[in-house]
Amino acid sequence: MEICVIGAGYVGLTSAVVFARLGHKVTCVDKDSEKIKKLNEGSITIFEPGLEKLLVGFNRNISFSEDIEDAIGRAETILIAVGTPQLPDGEADLQFVNEVILTIANTIYSHKTIITKSTVPIGTNDKLVEILLELEVKRSRFHIVSNPEFLREGSAVKDMLHPDKIVVGLEDHDQQSLIKLKQLYYGINAPFVVTSLKGAEMIKYASNSFLATKISFMNEMARICDVFNVDIMDVAKGIGSDPRIGSEFLQAGIGYGGSCFPKDLQSLIYTSKKQEILPKLLMATEEINQTQVDVYMDKLKSYIPNLTDKKITVLGLSFKPNTDDIRSSPAIRLIHKLVAHNAKVHVYDPKAKYETTNVIQFHHVNDALNDTDCIIVATDWDEFLYLDWNDIKRRVNENIVLDTRNFLNRNKVEKHGFTYVGLGRSRNETKLPE
Ligand SMILES: NC(=O)C1=CN([C@@H]2O[C@H](COP(=O)(O)OP(=O)(O)OC[C@H]3O[C@@H](n4cnc5c(N)ncnc54)[C@H](O)[C@@H]3O)[C@@H](O)[C@H]2O)C=CC1
Ligand SMILES: O=C(O)[C@H]1O[C@H](OP(=O)(O)OP(=O)(O)OC[C@H]2O[C@@H](n3ccc(=O)[nH]c3=O)[C@H](O)[C@@H]2O)[C@H](O)[C@@H](O)[C@@H]1O
Questions:
Q1: Residue of 31, 82, 260 with the most ligand 1 atoms within 8 Å of its CB, for mutation
Q2: What CATH number does the domain containing 32 carry?
Q3: In the chain, at which end, N or C, are there fewer CB atoms within 10 A of the end residue's CB?
Q4: Taking 70 as the threshold, does the pLDDT of residue 213 lie above it?
Q5: Which atom of ligand 2 is nearest to 261's Cα?
Q6: 4 Cβ closer than 6 Å to some ligand 1 atom
Q7: What are phi and psi of 305, to 5 degrees?
Q8: Does 224 reside within a domain?
C-alpha cells in the first residue's frame, strides 16, 4: 500500500518505519526542513530504542520529503501524525491538524483514506469531514478514520509492533475503511476495537486519563504512607496482585510528565467544562500531579532549610527513562524550583539535554556529583541503579540522596552511609532484606 505519513515526530516517524517494516511503501513528510534533511542523511532525529536499526533495515520502503502535496497526491492512505499541543486554557491546539486538512483538500484528485493518529478532542474527526465537504471535496473522494495511537516513548517500536489492541473509529456505514485498516496492519497480531469516530477519540482520552489517575492515586497513597510509616512499595505489591487493579502504573514518585498525559487531561477537562460537566476526578488527578514536586521540595528543605548556594545534583532530565524527551518533565519543574531557591544546580542525563541559565549540565555522571550537597534522582534511568556509591561517597560534601522515583536500592545506598529519602518509603523492619 502507498502511504503518506504527515509529521515525522515520535508517532509519525515510528509509524512510518513500522509500516515500512510491514511492507508498505511509505513517504514520511514534515514541514520541518531540518528534520527531513537529517532523516535523508540517514541520521535519526529522536532517541527511541530499536528505531534506527529498523529504519536502516527497511529503508528501501521509506522516503522522507518536504513536498507534502506530492506525497499526498501519490498515496492512497494518509496518516495525520502532527502535534496537538495545549493552549494556555487547556484546549487542544488543532492548528497543525487544520493546516494538514487544508493541504489535503487542495490535493485530492483520487480517493484517499485519511487516518487521524494525532490525539484530537471528541468531535474533531466529524469536523474534518465537514471541513473537507465545505471546501468542496467530493464525498466520494475520501473517508476519515480515527486510529489513535497508544505507544509509549522509550518503547515506541515494541508498542507499535505488539499493541494490545488497534482502535478504529469509522464514519457511519464505512466498511470499506475497515478493510483498508486491516490491510494496513496486516502482520500485526492484535484485536481490532471498532467504533464510531467519536468513540475512538474518547477511548484515547479515557485511556490516558485512567493511567494518569492511577499514578496520582498512588502518589496520594504515598503521601499518606509517609506519615504512617508504611512502605508504599509494599502497598503497590499488595494491591497490584489483585487482577482487578493490576500491577502496572502503581509506581509512586514525582508525578507524570511527557507530551501527553498532562496535555490530554487538560484537554478533556476543557472539553468537559465546555459541556458544563465538572470533571472532579480529572481535576484532582491534575492537582495532585502539579503539587507532587512541592512534596519533594518540602522533603529537601527539611534536610537543607536554606538552599542558597547549595550545590544540588539532579540525575535525570527526561520525563521518563529511555527517551530524550523533556516535554513537561517533572525533573525540569523541580530544577526551576531549585533555581528559584538560589541553589547551584548540576545536572546529568544519559540522553536528554536542557540548556538554561543557572544550571550546569555534565556529560559524565561523576563530574556532576563532585562536591555536591544533595543528590536528587529525578528520572529512573537504569544507569542510576548501577552507580558506584562507594566512589560517590568520596566525591560528595553531604550524604543526602532524594530518590523521587522510589527506585534505587535503598539498602545499597544506605550501606555506604547515605541518608536515603524517598516518598512513603518508611522502613518495614519485618520484611526480608532486599
Ligand atoms: N509522543 C507520544 O508518545 C504519543 C503522541 N501521541 C499523539 O500524536 C500526536 C503527535 O505527537 P508527537 O509525535 O509526539 O509530536 P511531535 O511534536 O514529536 O511531532 C509532530 C511533527 O509534526 C510536524 N508538523 C506539524 N505541522 C505540520 C504540517 N502542517 N505538515 C507537516 N508536518 C507538520 C512537526 O514539524 C513535527 O515534526 C499528538 O497528537 C500526540 O498527542 C499519541 C500517542 C503517543
Ligand atoms: O498518548 C500518549 O502520548 C502516550 O502517553 C503515555 O505514554 P508516555 O507518556 O510515553 O509514557 P508513560 O510510560 O505512560 O509515562 C508517563 C509518565 O508517567 C510516569 N509514571 C508512569 C508509570 C508509573 O507507575 N508512575 C509514573 O510516575 C512516567 O515517569 C512518565 O513521567 C501512555 O502510556 C501511552 O499509552 C500513550 O500513547
A1: 82
A2: 3.40.50.720
A3: C
A4: yes
A5: 5
A6: no
A7: -60, -35
A8: no
CB neighbours (10 Å) of residue 358? 13
Residue with cell 516535554: 327
List the one residue out of 415, 400, 398 whose CA is nearest residue 296: 400
Residue entry with cell 504512607: 225
Residue among 4, 5, 6, 11 to mutate when testing ligand 1 (max atoms within 8 A of CB): 11
Worst-scoring range by mean pLDDT, 45-49, 277-281, 326-330, 359-363?
Answer: 45-49
Reported confidence tier of residue 356, pLDDT bands at 50, 70, 90 = confident
**What pLDDT score does 358 carry?**
85
Closest CA to 266 of 290, 282, 254: 282
- The CB of 279 under 6 Å from ligand 1? The reply is no
Q: Is 54 annotated as a binding residue?
A: no
Q: Which pLDDT belongs to residue 428? A: 56
Active site residue 28: no
- 82-121 tens-digit pLDDT: 999 999 999 999 999 999 999 999 999 999 999 999 999 9
Closest C-alpha to ligand 2, atom 18: 256
151 is in an annotated binding site: yes
Residue 326 lies in a domain: yes
Residue 241 lies in a domain: yes
What is the number of structural domains in the chain? Answer: 2
ipTM metric: 0.98
Say whether both 261 and 130 belong to one domain.
no
Q: How many residues does the chain have?
A: 434
- Cα gap 58→62, rounded to integer Å: 7
**Structural domain of 87:** 2-190
